[in-house]
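cron nightly-structures :: item 1 of 1
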Amino acid sequence: MTTETILVIDDDQDLRESIVEILENNDFAASGCDSAETALEKVKVTTPRLVILDNMMPGMGGMALMPLLKKDYPNIKIIMITAFSTVENAVAAMKSGADDYLSKPFRREDLLVTVRRNLEELKFASQLSEPGMDDALACLANPIRRQILATLAREKQMRFMNLTRELEISDHTKVNFHLKNLKMNNLISQNREKAYHLTPEGEKMVDCLQLLFKKISS
């Protein structure tokens, strides 16, 4: 089970428990609350990464709860669910702090796709905020460097000549220049056999680039 904690807030017990069950069956850590008031107390103890929130509930509704959550926990992702799907409701939800929107009744697949997309966006944002990430991203403005990282991510490790053949670049000086740049930014390293491989920072960068391209193409 992942460490990504998800809180489901809905006064409809059957729906709430159904959503929690679907999430747990897909390796998410999920729990439920039957009211906004209970949720506010719960997040003080364990702050979730993502909240799935019903719009219409007795007492405090979803629209009123979202600004409170975003004020104290700005990094929480919020998915609003409602039976009243209109453009006006969607705009109002987004203005109040919703990051995404699901209309009842929704399919199991729609729920999972929406949850995964928002968790990926959180991961992407956290990686971009890490120290040195601006320099690393600037380093990858060159397509050859991106190719090197992608090749090493796929092959795990490669010696210089094998890498140049894989890249289909005959100018060894050019490849060596880009390898030094990647090493300087601590994205790749060499082992005792002189084979190049990704560093932990390089692996994070590959994940970051994959998420970026996925966001652009979606």
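cron nightly-structures :: done
The chain has a mean pLDDT of 84.
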